[in-house]
Recover the amino acids of this structure.
């Protein structure tokens, strides 16, 4: 299972870095559940590839996201990804760099569970709430 999970996670992240959403979505199991922090403006559990797309849409309505780099760590239970990302306010252009950790589980060679941890959700929220003066 873990080799499949690493391969799916790597394909997902590489595709997102290239802006290839179609390939990224192909790495997601139909029964995917994405767990987002309750403090964000898109909280809770999101289901399926459509739920993942909805999260990206809500996030990118306020922020641009650039994955600068990432590394994956494998264990018998899950694959963990640690990424350095830059969030940029669409309203002001101000950016915040921070780490994001995601824990993936796979089934049938595709990601079925994604648990997401932002190093500083308060900074992401503040950036998203900025407006032009």
């Amino acid at each position: 299972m873990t080799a499949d999970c690493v391969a799916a996670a790597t394909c997902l992240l590489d595709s997102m870095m290239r802006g290839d959403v179609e390939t990224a979505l192909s790495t997601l199991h139909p029964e995917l559940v994405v767990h987002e922090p309750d403090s964000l403006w898109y909280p809770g559990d999101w289901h399926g590839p459509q739920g993942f797309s909805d999260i990206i849409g809500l996030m990118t309505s306020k922020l641009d996201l650039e994955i600068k780099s990432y590394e994956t760590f494998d264990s018998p239970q899950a694959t963990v990804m640690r990424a350095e990302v830059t969030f940029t306010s669409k309203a002001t252009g101000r950016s915040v760099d921070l780490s994001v950790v995601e824990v993936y589980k796979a089934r049938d060679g595709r990601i079925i569970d994604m648990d997401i941890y932002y190093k500083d959700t308060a900074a992401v929220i503040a950036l998203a709430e900025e407006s032009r003066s």
Summary: The chain has a mean pLDDT of 94.
